[in-house]
Amino acid sequence: MTPKDGEKKEIAQTAPANPTETKETSNKSDSKWGPLKTKAEKAWKALKEGLNGNVFDKLAAIPNFFKAFFDEVNTVDTEEEKKNKETAAKTGAVLKNLDSDSAVKALAPSFSAKDKDGNVIEPPAVVNDSLGIAWSVATTLDTDRQKSKKATDGTTMGVLGQIADKADPKKNPDKKPLSTDEQKLAFSYGSRFVIALKDKYPDKADFKKALDDFSSSTEGAPIGFHTFQTETFKGLFSGGDKLKIFDPILSKIGWLDKGKLLAGFATKSFTSDLKTGKIPDLLVKTSAEILPNTSEANRTNLLKIIGQILSQKELGSTFPTNEQLTNIVFAVDNKDLRKLSNAFA
Amino acid sequence: MNPIESIILDLLETSSLPGIYKLMIKNLLPEMYREQQEELVKILFADQKNIEEIHKKKMAIYRKYEPMIDSMLESVESGKDASLNPMILNFVKGNQEKKRAETTNLKLDTLKNILTVK
Predict the structure, then answer these.
(1) What is the mean pLDDT of chain A?
(2) Which of A43, A78, A105, A175 has the largest CB neighbor count within 10 A?
(3) d(CA B91, CA B93)
(4) For the residues A290-312, what does the mean pLDDT come to?
(5) Which of A230, A120, A217 lies closest to A170 in space, CA to CA?
């Protein structure tokens, strides 16, 4: 018995359209696993073009074969991902009990450069301060999400650890992006981290100096500001379901404005306006609903900086300057940052 | 270094843990409470078991599909019609028969359940 033409077409459609979308695997994967997937992707790519005109393929053999293969691959990859997440969460729950001084002591060597004789150069206070803040923000966010039943104990810590791995070019050579949930958590964590850093350096000039000191002192260290300027880091936010990721923001906007906003971004008209220094009225209006405690002048300024960053990107400078980062951080009211953090959590 | 610490360090390298956790455990291990170390040993042993299980599953898929994918690539390279490749045809037929058998079994089970209830 062979499938009818309609059935054959249906099978062809259910076969993977883009096998590269198979789930990610950890770096610990067996050395044969990655090459096998690459080989299969190559074969599927070479074969799928000729499928429609192939009158001999009565069994839809090729799509059926690849569907079976990629289904099995995805099942194992998903299981591996789930187990790794559980392990990271359990470990996160143990490590969460460490105080921030211990965390700083353990992490500081990775943020310290060495001199030509191989001796560790003592980093400036800002490095240790930032690490202490980063740790306590992570533990607090974990506890808050646990209390609000959004995650179990240690899960948030575990996911943050996995995000850190994805930001490392050595651990993420394929430049895999963050998942939808990871991106939301990164935004939630980032907003809280900014609030805590602003508490430590409430003066704008001091904040900017702290960023300058941090970036210059970690230049030769294994981890530092340079970690955020790699292709790997840029790629982290390229995937995921954007509507789901930004739902906490979009849900604050009325349906009519939301429609206009999505259309404006889809046609890239907002992006090109921002790049030329024009601030679309709709963005000023809708940003008031997202950042209700931030003044119109600050929101407009924020949009201008975003425009600058977008145009810089075309010139090859993909990361905001310390001055721009400081201006962004101080433009947004802390109450709004807190709300954003909770909304994304 | 106590025996628990050395077990943790041995298991840590091959574990699935994020790099930042490995670094922290490595640097803070001597300062951790005994209960924390014991908890970590449990987690890392379970992790090793998971890694082995996943490895076995991956190898089973590798052994099942690798010869067929190679054969298909050979067909492509030599300009032959890959859909007539006997290995692939056998695989698809086998798969279809398996699915048919599964559906039949499911229907029989449902019927059995209905009859038992009645």
Answers:
(1) 86
(2) A43
(3) 6
(4) 94
(5) A230
Question: What's the whole-number average pLDDT of chain B?
Answer: 90
Among A181, A182, A210, A183, smallest CA distance to A194 is for A210
Is B58 a residue whose pLDDT tops 90? yes
Length of chain A: 345
Token pair 């009859």: residue = B115
Beta partners for residue A201, in sequence order: none
Instruction: Compute the distance between CA of residue A162 and CA of residue A158 in angstroms, rounded to an integer.
Output: 6
Residue type, A57: D
Residues of A in Cβ contact (< 8 Å) with B72: 43, 47, 62, 65
CB atoms within 10 A of CB A205: 9
The model carries a pTM of 0.79
pLDDT of residue A113: 86
Nearest one of A154, A159, A110, A157 to A138, comparing CA atoms: A157
| Residues in chain B closer than 8 A to A227 (CB atoms) | none
ipTM, 2 decimals? 0.84
Distance, CA of A202 to CA of A206 (rounded, Å): 7
Q: Is the pLDDT of residue A192 over 80?
A: yes
Q: What is the pLDDT of residue A55?
A: 56
| The two structure tokens encoding residue A81 | 């991902």
- Within B1-118, residue ranges assigned H as helices are 3-13, 19-28, 34-77, 86-117
Residue B57 and residue A168: Cβ atoms within 8 Å?
no
